[in-house]
User: Fold this.
Amino acid sequence: MKRTGKQPPQSRTSRPKVVKRFATERDLVRAYVRSLPRSNADYRVVHTELESENGIADVVTVRMRKDWARSSGLAKIAPQWAFALRVLPYRKVFTTIAFSELTGASRSTAISVLRTFEAAGFCTRKQQPNCWTKIRQPIPVASQIIAIEAKLSDWRRALMQAYRYLDFATQSWVLIDAANSGPAFRNIAEFKRLNVGLAVIGPETRVRKLFAPSKQEPKSPIRHWGVLSLIGRRTL
Assistant:
């Protein structure tokens, strides 16, 4: 019997869509750095792999203060002593012993550190033995510090590390390869709970922010000033 009418179309097997991924975390970081706007002079990439007391941040960007050039003296201070300089009494006489007790340093270390403060123009020695005065306040180079931890897929590890950066940063983010971002997105409540941002990027896609955290004061003034010193050293 002869069949009439149209035959159903032949089914065609479509090729699965190839999702491009980053080969290494370094490629991921480079793609992010290239995506940063160049027109805003207030922002600049300080460095990739900025080593701090809280670990090595993959990228740190900062909003520079308008008077940041006046902060050159801070770059001459070792990061571990930047906060001690900040909290010294201004325009008041203090002794080497008082500084030693304030910082927990030995007397010989206290003298050595105070000499670096003097050489940087922050302190001066008085005529009385072992007496000093702070004659200039250190100025931070940045008003905002944003730290980014990049991972190809391990969002839990990235989140914990990014959370540590809140000791010194005003914002902290996790950056994940977009091809592997599903698990992180499904757990976005954890990012919100810790106030850590989540963003994704692919080899052929732009940065997409899935959660933007609120800005906050750094949790540790000591580590915040230490990173300010590092930023000064790498910027000036």
Q: What stands out?
A: The first helix runs from residue 25 to 35. Strands lie at 43-52, 55-64, 93-95, 123-125, 131-134, 142-151, 171-177, 197-202, 205-211.
